[in-house]
Design a protein that fits this description.
Blueprint lengths: L37 E7 L4 E6 L2 H5 L7 E7 L4 H11 L3 H8 L6 E4 L4 E10 L5 E10 L3 E6 L7 H8 L4 H4 L2 H36 L5 H19 L1 H11 L7 H66 L15 H22 L4
Helix pairs in contact: 6-9, 7-9, 8-9, 9-10
């Protein structure tokens, strides 16, 4: 833990949007996707579910049917041309499509006549145990749901499994319930992320108490930056979910609104856990300074005791080290052993006194 927790994430420059008109479609991301543009299509009703993967928007849109619900999971936001086709299909304004392509955009929800647009952040651990914060956008229609994400990896495998199960409750509900289920998976994963981070902080606290090292300061600063990033991802969701809970939009049924009420309780719980985690981080630096101070005090105490024991012995040695001709015990054959006996007796007496006072 003495090493930094992770390499600092590369900041995304907004210079390429400078001077462009509102609604200009520019991908603002890290270009980490290596799988290319793909659309994972789940077409389902109460009886069955069909799964297909397409690389062309037109092919994916041809699978939509009025008597079935369809989930189109889009990966690869850097392909602006294909993303624009989906925006045209849903008839959403380019201003909103611009927000979908902006991976740094704040979480929000927009209610339109025939659609609901939602932008949130998804958190999960990567293979190297660092946190990945991914941009996630939803467009909810009457019988379809389009999700946009930067990379293929996500946290929705359980949702996919439930869609493929026979007699799945998820397939018996409307498309708005799938919308809720995906959001619920995102919020539930916040709990997992915060639990693991809290465990890391607790382990780090133990290491600080046992053996504080100067290199730990950089790790503490990394954790603080990480906590601020997580805070920016989670806190806006309280307002977003509250609006979804209270909306009267026809796409969200009254039955599903009840689930959003429960989801709102969950996000409040997540925020409370995040506050606790943040407080623990704020106390790490104080704990580090206290541990270093206590360790220094212990070292100084030991050195002070050693110095105190040797001061009178040094005085005796110094006195008898003077080159005077006439000094007591200089010509006494027992002077040397007597001097040693006196010095040892003084040292033992002082150590016994310190122990009695519980200074040792």
């Amino acid at each position: 833990m003495g090493k930094p927790l992770k390499q600092r994430r590369k900041r995304i420059s907004r210079a390429k949007k400078l001077g462009l008109p509102p609604g200009a479609l520019v991908y603002m991301g890290e270009q980490e996707n290596t799988d290319g543009f793909r659309i994972e299509v789940y077409s389902y009703d109460e009886n069955d579910c069909f799964v297909q993967i397409f690389t062309k928007t037109e092919e994916a849109l041809n699978t939509l049917k009025k008597d079935r619900y369809t989930w189109l999971n889009v990966t690869g936001l850097s392909n602006i041309k294909e993303v624009a086709k989906l925006g045209k299909f849903t008839s959403i304004n380019n201003l909103f499509l611009e927000d979908i392509l902006d991976t740094q955009h704040r979480s929000k929800v927009e209610f339109m006549t025939n659609n609901i647009l939602l932008i949130i952040k998804m958190l999960y651990f990567k293979e190297d145990e660092t946190i990945r914060k991914e941009h996630l956008a939803f467009i909810l229609g009457e019988n379809y749901l389009i999700t946009f994400q930067e990379n293929k990896k996500d946290i929705f495998n359980e949702i996919r499994k439930r869609l493929n199960e026979k007699d799945s409750f998820l397939r018996k509900k409307g498309i708005d319930y799938l919308f809720f289920s995906l959001m619920d998976a995102v919020v539930d994963n916040f709990f997992i992320v915060l639990e693991k981070l809290t465990e890391k902080v607790e382990d780090f606290e133990d290491q600080i108490i046992e053996s504080p090292q100067e290199s730990m300061i950089s790790s503490i600063q990394d954790m603080k930056r990480e906590a601020m990033s997580i805070r920016r991802s989670i806190y806006p969701l309280r307002e977003v979910i509250s609006r979804l809970e209270k909306t009267t939009h026809p796409i969200i049924t009254a039955d599903t609104s009840l689930y959003f009420q429960d989801l709102y309780d969950h996000i409040i719980h997540v925020i409370e856990n995040l506050d606790i985690y943040t407080e623990m981080l704020l106390g790490l630096m104080d704990m580090y300074m206290s541990s270093v101070s206590n360790r220094m005090n212990s070292i100084m105490k030991t050195l002070t005791i050693i110095s105190t024991v040797f001061i009178p012995l040094t005085f005796i040695v110094g006195v008898y080290g003077m080159n005077f001709k006439y000094m007591s015990f200089l010509n006494n054959p027992y002077g040397y052993p007597i001097t040693w006996a006196v010095m040892i007796a003084m040292a033992v007496a002082m150590i016994f006194y310190y122990k009695k006072k519980k200074w040792l």
